[in-house]
Amino acid sequence: MALSVRTRLFVAVALTLFSARFVHAAEIYMDHKIPVELRVKALLSRMTLVEKIGQMMQIERSVANASVIRKFRIGSVLSAGGSTPEVNKPEAWQEMVDSFQSGALRTRLKIPMLYGIDAVHGHNAAYGATIFPHNIGLGCTRDRELVKRIGAVTALELRATGIPYTFAPCVAVCRDPRWGRCYESFSEDPSLVRKMTDVIYGLQGVGPPGLPFVAGRSKVAACAKHYVGDGGTRKGINANNTILSFEDLVKIHMVPYFDAIAKGVSTIMISYSSWNGVKMHANRFLITDVLKGKLRFKGFVISDYQGIDQITTPPDANYTYSVLASINAGIDMVMVPMDYKGFLSNLTSLVNSGFVPMKRIDDAVRRILRVKFSMGLFEHPLAERSYLHHFGVQGNKDVAREAVRKSLVLLKNGKDKSQPFLPLSKKATKILVAGTHADSIGLQCGGWTISWQGSPNDTTKGTTILHAIKTAVSKPTRVLHKASPERGYAARSKADFAVVVVGEPPYAEGRGDNQNLTIPAEGLRTIKNVCPEVKCLVILISGRPLVVQPYLHLMEAFVAAWLPGTQGKGITDVIFGDYEFVGKLSRTWFRSVDQLPMNVGDAEYDPLFPFGYGLRMDIKHKTP
Ligand SMILES: *[C@@H]1O[C@H](CO)[C@@H](O)[C@H](O)[C@H]1NC(C)=O
Ligand SMILES: *[C@@H]1O[C@H](CO)[C@@H](O)[C@H](O)[C@H]1NC(C)=O
Ligand SMILES: *[C@@H]1O[C@H](CO)[C@@H](O)[C@H](O)[C@H]1NC(C)=O
Ligand SMILES: *[C@@H]1O[C@H](CO)[C@@H](O)[C@H](O)[C@H]1NC(C)=O
Ligand SMILES: *[C@@H]1O[C@H](CO)[C@@H](O)[C@H](O)[C@H]1NC(C)=O
Ligand SMILES: *[C@@H]1O[C@H](CO)[C@@H](O)[C@H](O)[C@H]1NC(C)=O
Fold first, then answer.
1. Is residue 287 located within the same domain as residue 351?
2. Pfam families given for it (predicted)?
């Protein structure tokens, strides 16, 4: 067949243009030199609805594998609390994440999957990771530069396991310690929580103000949570109703998000709780109008675990409605986390029938891609083997030990000022160490450690307080240890003094709610058995202030150590006087639970120890 010159010329030009355009489009989103917004636009324009919805789904690792991720174009995978690979070692984490990633990289558009985990006090699910004090203790340090370094260490240890995304920091403003998640909150005082959002700079690095940003492969994407009002629920009941005017909601619970957004936080997680009776997961006003509109948040909004499922409850549970309400409220990525087929089919039909507008889907995917591009995930989708060397190393543990030292709050020291009891002598002849919490890594770490709710057992590596005491004292000093001594034991022991370490069992959300806030019976018995017989320092290991007023007179000295994590030597550094106490209460210490909620600034304020309280030993020539 003979073609005219004109036709041949036309075909040649058209082909050139077409292929140039095609290659150009492909290059644009794969080319890291092209600005992020152009890459987002180029990629989004090529995506089908199924590919878009895939990006919006986050599934749990237990239902994930490379073929599921490939087939359903899954955009993200998470570890639920305590969901770890069978062998809990950094290498095994890396292999798992990479194998999931291989599925994503074999899809048509090769959009990498984003793996996320709750690393809330260090990389707490990974065996052998450095475990830091929970946020309540970090609030007592008032040290922005320290929390930044903690963020940096956490990011490195996450990257050592191939993970580029953490569901942290929790910027809850806990207004009632009866809430079981109170220890995840830096403070009851919004302005202190605002300062502590500097941890985001440590996790992600410092970028252009107000834009999601992750500074390369040694950093991770962060997530401010739980938007909004999680710490303000009635009686501290987890995921319950926060009853407040909009003005107070902003003033108390929303302000930390101003800072998190300004510092470039990549993602924000929605709270299970309700605001004035409306589930946050369905609150279009607070998510779309306020967070994305007024606050100009440019990263993506993620649901909590099965958070959208709770929008409707049996007998009126209706998953279709839950999907409709949550996506139209403005949630971009959903922790499905199991039934991805159900989510996909529901959202697909809701879009096809016009109940969810395509521009809402595009907004969600644009935000998810923006985060993935800005964190360099397309350039470096796989785990970096060389980061294994950062995992649980001494330098990281030193940061945690420093954090423990600075988080301790001295609440009583001697019967009066002229007779201080601390610092303790390292040269005592005999020391009695007693209490349930003296020799347990699991108890001093608390919830969100290896498993979701935590464990009283030695579930990971670390130094217990007992071990730290044995290491700190002089060679000839005898350290006697009994977890639950009976009456008379301390007197017979002829110890110079006793260190009694008691506190709460480990717990996390839900199970940690507590309406009485008493020291558990076994610990209370130990205080009552030991302290009248031998002068004692009581160290409380707890996720919040507990009722102590009735027992305070028995104690010679009293230290709140919160949930210090794996580095017990941070405690002995201070009680033996190598370092000064610098911690100040991040919360009000109430007298009795019937005062609750009671927070700094309240008109009626009659605490046992006020917000900001904390004694010094006044040791000379020693610095923190
Ligand atoms: C991946 O998971 C799916 C769904 O559970 C299962 O059908 C499939 O066999 C799994 N594939 C592999 C390779 O394990
Ligand atoms: C709050 O808790 C009460 C009592 O447990 C329960 O009946 C109610 O449904 C909860 N409200 C919300 C909004 O979760
Ligand atoms: C469930 O919700 C969807 C979306 O609002 C609605 O169309 C459907 O009728 C509801 N189903 C039932 C059984 O109420
Ligand atoms: C919505 O999801 C539920 C749960 O998986 C499923 O039973 C139902 O068939 C889905 N509905 C649609 C319209 O896809
Ligand atoms: C702790 O260890 C004990 C004894 O080995 C065991 O019975 C218990 O189940 C463990 N607890 C947890 C929460 O793992
Ligand atoms: C206090 O509440 C906790 C949690 O509900 C419970 O386990 C404990 O037994 C209660 N203690 C007392 C003394 O009532």
1. yes
2. Glyco_hydro_3 (PF00933), Glyco_hydro_3_C (PF01915)
